[in-house]
Amino acid sequence: MTTHRPAGVHAAWLPPEAFRAIGSRRTLVHGAGLLVGTVHQEVEQACARYGGAVVRLEPRTAGEPYDGDGTFDLVLALSAPEPPLPGAAQVPACLRGEGRHPAQPTGDEGYTLARQGGVTVVLADAPAGLLYGLFHVVRLGESAFGGDRAPELHRPAVRSRMLDHWDNVDVHPVMGQVERGYSGGSIFWRDGAPRGDLARVRAYARLLAASGVNAVALNNVNVHATETRLLTDRLGDVAALADVFRPYGIRVHLSVGFASPVVLDGLPTADPLDREVRAWWAEAAGRVYRAVPDFGGFVVKADSEGQPGPFTYGRSHADGANMLAEALAPFGGVVHWRAFVYDHQQDWRDRSTDRARAAFDHFAPLDGEFHSNVVLQVKHGPMDFQVREPVSPVIAAMPATRLAVEFQVTQEYTGQQQHVCYLGPMWSEVLGFRPWGADAPTVAAVAAGGAAYGGGAEGGGLVAVSNVGDDPYWTGHPLAQANLYAFGRLAWEPRADPVAVLDEWIDLTFVPVVSGDPEPLRSTLHAMMDGSWRSYERCTAPLGIGFMVRPGHHYGPDVDGYEYTPWGTYHFADRDGLGVDRTRASGTGFAGQYPAPWSEVYESPERCPDELLLFFHHVPYGHVLRSGSTVVQHIYDTHFAGAEEAAESRRLWQKLGAGGLVEPALHARVAERLDEQVRSAEEWQDQVNAYFFRKSGVPDAHGRRIP
Ligand code: GCW
After folding, report:
1. Each residue of 451-472: pLDDT tens digit?
2. Percentage helix, strand, coil, to 5, in the chain?
3. How many domains does the chain divide into?
4. Atom of ligand 1 nearest to the CA of 554
5. Has residue 705 been placed in a domain?
6. Residue 413 Cα: closest atom of ligand 1
């Protein structure tokens, strides 16, 4: 029997106690195969702890009746069981094989959930659906076993729900074991070798499956020499990890370097139109699939921040992606080709080059040229995972291309897991954004594709960079676990309310292990977390301008840190005002990359939403926002407020105390991070306010102290 977690590791959102309601009941698990085995094992473990019972039935052929006639509280069965299950009289008629509505297939991963006559039933067409249905019952807890429940069909909104690990096999001299990782080392590798701690990986797979994730890329998109060998002599590492993810319905993918044929086998070129190069990739793909038959595919960062790519050979990104797609196609694999391509060596003096334009300029003209197993993976904003950006215009520009939208669960620019910053509300806003205006499809619909996207290309799904490491709490800051959970849940159901998702996480993580009334803990966590993304926005770069962070590691304030660098991330503050003019009328023209109505809304300083004003416009400090405040007064007010909110969070957590409601060690870990958050928020407040006071000479209207 597997353990729920390796020794010394916090259970995150599935402590054994979360299975209490199921563990004390009688369950029938019906179906064959690996994932049904996982379902059975999960229930069996719960029953061993809480005294319930579980029966496992392999499907039989018609005419061969089941023995026995058990009575069950919970039935988890593959659809249309024939002959009828024992105790089938208890299965609601509407869900019995013969009575089920034929127009409602559950698909590969969906399930129907109902309760009638004292039995809770999960029916699925395929094993993965049973697994997701089981976790739904876990979320419901006791309430899964009370009253009646009309049949509900649950299916994921997007097919591919993927986490990318930026894990290195070797320790990188600057980036460490995990690039932009804030949770210790990799859970896969340590110092160039597999960690071999597969129990930890299994526990991770289980957490991901319970949140809805079904794909993982194992290594950093910046591919160094050792990671290139994951395609050859290190393929065994990949197969071992795939074996652990598989029972939880998760496929593994690999990031590959575009120059692999040169690096690994000394080919003279990696030109995607070269016959030998194409044969090399076909052979590499075959090798991978022999080791991992359900391998997901390749992730590629090409011609980006120094990574090799097709531009070296005068070829397009469609040429590059399609070559890999052809190699993977015979096996059903997919290429995730990243659209994060821009000039990272631009001249800061040149005001006409605009990094925000780059992805659209490179990729929009290629719409329709990518093979159907290429997914173009687009960061949600045009720059780089800032606390506030407009939605990337690429998302609305490529109706004939499979698009995936990429988020960053790891908090590179949102507090690095030192700060509480619950990102669910940001992702929810992005997913619900309608690039073509009211009544037109949302970003989530583009990621879902097909019918949801008005008959557009099949969707590429949702992807996010993982925030997990070998830290005992998984994510450094224990409350950062909520971001990982929320990504999976919002990828499954983008319309879910992010605050309700947070509540689910609290229910699954803390409530099962609380002795006594959980309400004070619940309300404290909501008070600290619900609005923490907006609070972090108030603390840092104002009104959508972004950056102002310390170069390199990206933590803490440095208003001019990137101002005179080649990275294309400028605020252009002078004595009169700040912001980037991205209008068509007088600026870089970026606003024109959007369809109407947003092209018009963003073009106009009067209509542009306040929170994005400085992303699109260069305005004087005295410019009056839609809120009624001036830009400079807004900067002061938000920075004072953000620092005060951090202090308030700390007060709430201290008030909660270490006794009883949360383990003392966890309380201490959060308390220590809150001290740092308060310190850092004051630093942001003072540096940003002092900077703009000195530039503008405008005093704070309320006479507060600006150093
Ligand atoms: O945000 C930037 C990060 C890089 C990262 C890059 C990317 C993996 O600072 O560390 O590289 O984005 O998304 O490729």
Report:
1. 888 877 889 999 999 999 999 9
2. 40, 15, 45
3. 3
4. 9
5. no
6. 1
